[in-house]
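Lab manual, section 2.4: Encoding a predicted structure.

Procedure: take the sequence of the chain (389 residues), apply the prediction step described in section 2.3, and record the output as structure tokens. A sample record is shown.
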Amino acid sequence: MTQAKDNNCCVSICHCFFDYSTPKTLVIRSKKVGAINRITQALVIAYIIGYVCVLKKGYQDTDNILSSVTTKVKGIALTNTSDLGLRIWDVADYIIPPQEESSFFVLTNLIVTQDQSQGHCAEIPSVSSICTSDEDCKVGIRGPRSNGVQTGKCVNFNRTVKTCEVFAWCPLERDGEPPNPPMLADAENFTVLVKNNIRFPKFKFNKRNILPHINSSYLENCVFNRSTDPECPIFRLKDIVEEADEDFQTMAVHGGVMGVQIRWDCDLDLPDAWCVPRYNFRRLDNKDPTNTVSPGYNFRFAKYYKDSDNKETRTLIKGYGIRFDIMVFGQAGKFNIVPLLLNVGAGLGLLGLVAVVCDWIVLTCMTKRRLYNEQKYTYVDDYGVLPEE
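Recorded output:
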């Protein structure tokens, strides 16, 4: 019995191995099936032509952008304060540092501590610096938030508070809220020239955002306007901030980070003049009204001097301002037969699925599915005519 089962199993395996299937054409004259077939074919063809070839330009080879950016800011601001008096600010004063990679910083507000020199003074009151006697202060102690190195003495900070004496730049900075309105409120009228050079190396295509038809006289007078001067590479800082739905004077108090996005999407099958940049602006730093801890953007820097006695002094500035990050995106496309053949071939493969879909509908959903099944699959057993050994 076991031997007979083994023989039947071997025969079945042998039959499966030597089976051969050949396509059989079954023509079904049915309006319903025919309509489904043609509609599905039309959808696939529309996808290939409309989406792949036209919308996605599947006939083009593509290349990503290489870019460099330089900037030049211009403008004058005038301030008149009790600490600094009447003062003029030009680009050498408010652009810090003079050049950055694909970005620039504009000073809009500041807290100034003048005439600092190295010496001994009382530390700013805090949990770790308040004392009652010299025993509370340790010589040489310096903390990550302290302004200097403790000398071991407890001295008067004011009439009511004593703090540990430190060796530091004195007088110490009185860190508090920045002036509101901002000191350099005139910065909103500053302008920046953005020079952007781009290259698509695969196509050996180069261009810059100062377009060929722009001359020197136009460049001296134009300011970017999305409606009237969309190709001008000179931007007013207030316009950049307002394009991002922000208020410049509010942002200038604590500072922030703005993004200038330049997009180059070029179809190199068209004239070169059609390849032009598109500008967009948005605020990049977090602006959450429910979280006001450490808002904006600021840092400290100092200007150093020496008097006639060779004594070094400095002016410490805590600067608030807006950093503008310039980001360049883009892609170019140009006709190439290889991606066209690949996409057309993939589309023809999708057409082959139309027959599979129609077969499934005919064999599972139609009322005459049994008849269609009998007509579609025919089995010819040729083993009976094989000679026996």
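Check your result against the sample. The longest helix spans residues 337-364.
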